């Protein structure tokens, strides 16, 4: 019988840092002094973990309303860098970092890379974007902290990426899963697979399923790892899965994780699925108290066979704001990933098309299939899986591999034309 993670003990370890973090935010951040004060909180009021659950949440809307530096807590003379979200769905979020924040992030990222098996002898190709976006800079800092060789190609220019990959004998590829797939398929098309020296792939920035993992691992003959992070909380590198792939280990010495019911806000026990809420324990530039990530997951109860002391959350099933409703049923894209993983012949790439036909909602799933499989059989299997696991009837269109667009960043999969 598998041993159980002792979350009560972990919380006891975190408790002194939690008190310090909340008091720091109250004292140093005008935003939190006002927000916590409105909730009736004063320094010294945090006496139990139940008290934390009574503190108000912080949302992305709060961060946008504070643009540009309304949530900065450190003195400006101590801030050494800023990063920013893209701002594609509203005002960008600007995050200030102190020197300690930068170093803490590098430690977390190096820890994540090491958990994936990266060593000082590896050559690591970093394809995410640099600049205001956190990913490129964060990965490079972790690679250097670990003592490996960073190959900072940045995004795009697939021709150059493959040239560097073959000539510099890259052993670790880092990027979005979408771009990892694109590079893998391009290498195969150009007959370059036997010239690659890759052994590991570390992919994040978007949710991706087991079907894509299997496809990339088979194509590139590598082991892949899912890395998690978000701009508001340092950036990527705050959690990663290990070689057992039973969940993503997160760094509880830097971060406090809660799972809440996304509707009621009630804290849920380990094992129950809900929305991830994060409190930073050591962040100085922009500490966050009970930040609602909108990411849906659960804390894993069973201890990992790898023996790591760090607890785990499950891979994301989606976001609470990614949910779509059709025929009265709430659906997350992660459920479609699950359907494809159980459908023989179906590949990882798909699109969900939502339309109104004759005053009724209609869902069409476009999915790529492996060569040699019958379109009719794969479509019928998909329809059956969707009906049994999700509870709706859907139209399924099967396409040859490579028919759907590939992306150098994140792939858009949901198109709602209703």
UniProtKB/TrEMBL annotation:
Transmembrane segments: none annotated. InterPro entries: Adenylate-forming_Reductase, AMP-bd_C_sf, AMP-dep_Lig_C, AMP-dep_synth/lig_dom, ANL_N_sf, PA_CoA_ligase. The keyword Membrane does not apply. Pathway: Aromatic compound metabolism; phenylacetate degradation. It catalyses: 2-phenylacetate + ATP + CoA = phenylacetyl-CoA + AMP + diphosphate. Catalyzes the activation of phenylacetic acid (PA) to phenylacetyl-CoA (PA-CoA). Belongs to the phenylacetyl-CoA ligase family. This is Phenylacetate-coenzyme A ligase. It comes from Heliorestis convoluta.
